[in-house]
């Protein structure tokens, strides 16, 4: 700034860096790639306008968000951050299902240890106290997904409605 080395934005845009340069505090000269990628995705004019509209104490966070979004857009030009979020949400869904299956296995093993004479274990549903045949030899999980009720982020084209007396129903938004 001033008489010293220009900030990364002024260096890239080949202009003189003034004391009032809005980019200087957030895009130092020792990290030119940071501004280059943000400039490539958003443009210097748009970045300048965004920063000027924000209070000074929020600008550093905004720059961090812009850099993150620009990196995501370079990696995935179509979806950007949304692609990464969707991927992580689907992983969470899969892990929730694996956890539910593991918990069901543990429950089956515990029930069989309590009464080893049972060929199949009966588990009582806590909401409506109906008996549910859950496992036979710890391998039968075909009916388990009907009784699991956590949101699925991977199925955006269907909606799940729960009636306490019936298993989950899946209804499409488009019908």
Automatic annotation (TrEMBL):
LOB domain: residues covered: 5-106
InterPro entries recorded: LOB
One matching Pfam family: LOB
Superkingdom, natural source: Eukaryota
Family: Belongs to the LOB domain-containing protein family.
PANTHER family listed in its UniProt record: LATERAL ORGAN BOUNDARIES (LOB) DOMAIN PROTEIN (PTHR31301:SF207), LOB DOMAIN-CONTAINING PROTEIN 4-RELATED (PTHR31301)
Protein name: LOB domain-containing protein 12
């Amino acid at each position: 700034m001033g008489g010293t080395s220009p900030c990364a934005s002024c260096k890239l845009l080949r202009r003189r860096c003034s004391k009032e340069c809005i980019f200087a505090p957030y895009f130092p000269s020792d990290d030119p790639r940071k501004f280059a990628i943000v400039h490539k995705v958003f443009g210097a004019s748009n970045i300048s306008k965004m920063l000027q509209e924000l209070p000074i104490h929020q600008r550093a966070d905004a720059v961090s968000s812009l850099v993150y979004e620009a990196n995501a857009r370079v990696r995935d030009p179509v979806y950007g951050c949304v692609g990464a979020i969707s991927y992580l949400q689907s992983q969470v869904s899969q892990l929730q299902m694996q956890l539910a299956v593991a918990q069901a296995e543990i429950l089956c093993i515990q029930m069989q240890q309590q009464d080893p004479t049972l060929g199949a274990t009966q588990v009582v549903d806590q909401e409506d106290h109906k008996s549910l045949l859950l496992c036979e030899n710890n391998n039968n999980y075909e009916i388990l997904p009907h009784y699991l009720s956590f949101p699925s982020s991977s199925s955006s084209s269907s909606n799940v409605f729960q009636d306490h007396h019936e298993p989950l129903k899946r209804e499409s938004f488009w019908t």
